[in-house]
Amino acid sequence: MAERILVIGSPGSGKSTFAKALADKTGLPVFHLDQHYWHAVWVESEKDEWAARVRTMVEQPRWIIDGNYSASLDARLARADQVILLDLSPLRCTWRIITRVLGSHGKVRADMAEGCAERFDLDFLWYVLSFRLRALPRVLDKLEDYKGEFVWLGTPREIRDFLSGERFDEDGHE
Question: How far is CA 73 from CA 3, 66, 105, 136, in A?
Fold first, then answer.
């Protein structure tokens, strides 16, 4: 069984929900990068502070880390046994973001840093819509030299099937 799992993909693809479900199955601790990157009221971490936080996370013996943050991807890839890419359609991800904002506007999600309430951001929606064209190719370039297991899940059904337990025994092991 993988002991260090990296979950990446477009915003709205369900990375945090997937990571939590996978943690429930495996018993691995979860680190949601958004909780560690952001300070209250959407203040970004300083570059050195962020690098130190990521280093602390990846040095742990066992983990699931969900999030993209390309500046720290190399450090996470160097320690990950398994990378899981959630690659849902841009329209599905955008729809999920819109419904999330409508349903949680002004509230802080469980996978988000304290004081970072859900908000509407047009630039963020554009990032989601263009993720496959702009961000994903850079991620895939970094994955070319990755030596661990790479799992590409492209539909909600593939995600459900992955988590359904077929890959896991009764103790949560693959």
Answer: 17, 11, 29, 12
Which amino acid, 154? G
Range of the domain at 94: 4-163
Let me know if residue 171 belongs to a domain: no
> What pLDDT digit, counting tens, does each position of 28-77 carry?
999 999 999 999 999 999 999 999 999 999 999 999 999 999 999 999 99
Per DSSP, helices labelled H in the chain are 15-26, 33-37, 47-58, 73-79, 90-104, 122-129, 131-143, 156-163
Tokens 């030596």 belong to: 147
**CA–CA dist 63, 23 (Å, integer):** 9
pTM (whole model) above 0.85: yes
**Separation between Cα atoms, residue 118 and residue 45, nearest integer Å:** 18
